[in-house]
Write a structure and sequence with these properties.
The protein has about 425 residues and is of the alpha+beta class. It folds into three domains: about 1-110, Ubiquitin-like (UB roll) (Roll), CATH 3.10.20.90; about 170-255 and about 410-425, no CATH class; about 265-395, Zinc/RING finger domain, C3HC4 (zinc finger) (Herpes Virus-1, 2-Layer Sandwich). It is built from nine helices and 16 strands. The strands form five sheets. A five-stranded mixed sheet has the order 8-12-11-7-16. Strand 1 (about 1-10) and strand 2 form a beta hairpin. It is elongated and about 130 Å long. It starts with a strand and ends with a strand. The model is unreliable at about 100-110 and about 395-425 (pLDDT under 50).
Length: about 425
């Protein structure tokens, strides 16, 4: 039966195929077929290696390894290294025979040393079979342990960096903050009394929002530095000490312009919502002919409890200059102070603030009226709603996502903005 194995050279894109008889082919025969198919010559000036396609770093090392049919292997052609011995070429795949690997012989020898497992006849009970199975496993494990005890231990040298090796440009030892050594060679590693401080990185913060601080200036303020609840280093003003990618110290400055723009947008949205609310409520009051609910000092504004009136003008019959004798408390007090305590309606003197009279009945009546009309008109006082409800949905979605640097000095940013770094001293 004809079978195939697919292969591809690492420097090529297309696959090739080798036909053979049987269900598998060994590495030696496959290499010989590849050399002959590609007319690579005698094999004296190169070596050929085969690798698994799913694990490209795993090589078919032994010539006796079996490759099943329909497999896919990678082929790499290498130059001859004369220091590795006379077998370091592909000549034997053209003219010679497979080289027997000592490791394969050792494996076969060890398998012959394993004691024969005990076999039970068919008449044995199930419990005897289970017991014998565990005994066979114990014997096999004991044999394996005996073999491992005679193996030679090979120690792999650690890939350590010599103390004299200088780190690349831009490298920072995040233990002591210096740039002239690797962190594994830091002089403070063996210092049991060394205590670093946690410094945050400037990842995600624009450079225009950072103010660089020299190390000398930071050393002068070392006594003023402290740590917050999160263990971050902060100064007296609450500003976190940051470290840039270049190893310099910095603090985040406030993005005042963006903060003011945000506050202005919120304020404008509140004023617009309040005006719309007042206009709808005022139109309904005029429609219901409830003029006593309108502010006499501003006819485009509805009175807001608590409501007061002067001692000289108690009844509707006392109306002269104005259309209402009821006022907002704050507006009435300001009006009296600005006009030497003259009544805004009749002009009478000596209307002092402590002589004002509260109209509780009208205040309660107005409160109930407003609640009824809000339900009827489907409106709500903006001053009683959250700030983000003042903005339309489209604008609310476009609100800026603030960096910690956008907040004014002294206002802490939301938690989780920074990524903590290793302990960091100021020495």
């Amino acid at each position: 039966m004809s079978s195939v194995v697919y292969y591809r050279f690492l420097h090529q894109k297309n696959k090739n195929v080798i036909h053979f008889d049987g269900t598998s082919i060994n590495v030696f025969d496959l290499k010989r077929e590849i050399i002959q198919q590609n007319q690579l010559g005698s094999g004296l000036d190169f070596n050929l290696k085969l690798f698994h396609s799913d694990q490209q770093d795993k090589e078919y090392e032994l010539d006796q390894d079996i490759i099943p049919r329909s497999s896919y292997v990678l082929v790499k052609r290498l130059p001859v290294n004369h220091k590795s011995g006379k077998f370091n070429n592909a000549a034997r795949y053209v003219t010679g025979k497979p080289r027997i690997n000592k490791r394969a012989i050792a494996t076969s020898n060890t398998t012959t040393n394993i004691p024969n497992q005990q076999v039970l006849d068919d008449s044995a009970t199930e419990e005897d079979k289970i017991k014998m199975m565990f005994e066979n496993q114990s014997n096999a494990w004991a044999q394996t342990q005996d073999e491992l005890s005679h193996h030679k231990i090979v120690y792999k040298p650690q890939n350590t960096t010599a103390p004299t090796d200088a780190p690349p440009p831009g490298y920072i030892c995040y233990r002591c903050g210096k740039k002239d050594h690797w962190i594994k060679n830091c002089p403070t590693n063996n210092d049991p009394n060394f205590e670093g401080k946690k410094v945050l990185r400037t990842t995600g913060i624009p450079k225009s929002y950072l103010k660089t601080i020299s190390k000398e200036e930071l050393e002068k303020k070392a006594n003023e530095l402290s740590t917050n609840d999160s263990g971050d280093v902060v100064d007296n003003d609450g500003n976190a000490i940051l470290i840039t990618d270049e190893g310099d110290y910095a603090i985040a400055v406030a993005d005042t312009k963006t903060w003011q723009n945000y506050q202005e947008r919120i304020k404008n949205a509140q004023m617009k919502s309040q005006n719309e609310y007042q206009n709808k409520l005022l139109a309904k009051i005029k429609q219901d002919n409830k003029l006593e609910y309108i502010d006499p000092l501003n006819e485009n504004k509805v009175l807001n409890p608590p409501i007061y009136k002067t001692a000289c003008c108690q009844n509707i019959t006392d109306l002269k200059k104005l259309k209402n004798i009821n006022y907002n408390k704050s507006d009435l007090e300001s009006q009296l102070i600005e006009n030497d305590f003259h009544c805004p309606n009749c002009g009478k003197e000596d209307n002092y603030i402590d002589s004002l009279i509260e109209n509780k009945e009208l205040s309660e009546e107005l409160t109930k009226y407003i609640e009824t009309k809000e339900t009827e008109l489907g409106i709500k006082d903006p001053s009683k709603r959250p700030i983000d409800e003042e903005l339309p949905d489209a604008k609310r979605q476009k609100l800026p996502q603030f960096d910690p640097a956008m907040f004014p000095m002294g206002i802490p940013p939301p938690p989780g903005m920074f990524i903590g770094m290793p302990q960091f001293p100021f020495k």
